[in-house]
Amino acid sequence: MLNLVLFGPPGAGKGTQSEKLISKYQLVHLSTGDILRNEISNGTALGLEAKKLMDQGILVPDEVVIGMISNKLDANKDANGFIFDGFPRTVAQAEALDSLLESKSSSITKMVALEVEHDELKKRLLLRGKDSGRPDDANPEIIEKRIQEYLTKTAPVAEYYKAQSKFEAINGIGSIEEIFDSICNTLIS
Ligand code: ADP
User: Fold this and answer.
1) Is 82 a residue whose pLDDT tops 80?
2) Ligand 1 lined by 89 (C-beta under 6 Å)
3) CATH number for position 18
4) Active-site annotation holds for 128
5) Which of 70, 99, 144, 147 matches a 20 to 30 Å C-alpha distance to 91?
6) Number of domains in the chain
7) Would you say the CB of residue 53 lies under 6 angstroms from ligand 1?
């Protein structure tokens, strides 16, 4: 099984690269952001609670996203592998993911980290906010809050995978194809 964690700050290009990796390697895409937005559009109780935090750029509680991922792993027992996009976002989530996969005799193959500097991220997110319809992309203060959440709570997750020798850094500046090629190269090495 090929189980990839696609990692990087908001606006790094995880969604774009996920789509390309899924079609090349036939993987199941698990984006906690997408799952949460789906809960919101279905008007579920979980969605309503999550929306309050997401609209402020704050992470939703670990147990909520871990439960969602656990359900998705159970629902896709025959998958070739998974791309985890936007998850794990805290060290507690990374630990929980390891135990979930271990209970299925599986494990994370690699973490691929897309690296893009702060100012470029802000530009990309504001541009995306013009037509994505995402309230958390439209406001510079909320964008800044998401980047701060990333730096304080999510960046330490990279250390977690470095300690397991699974961390690969990729330059997230360049054309979509160039970045995709560098990701694919790290997967065969
Ligand atoms: P981005 O484009 O900012 O990386 P996502 O679409 O992945 O954003 O997530 C949007 C919001 O959903 C986050 O700001 C956060 O509130 C919530 N969220 C998504 N994934 C997680 C997670 N794994 N843990 C906690 N909150 C999450």
Assistant:
1) yes
2) yes
3) 3.40.50.300
4) yes
5) 144
6) 1
7) yes
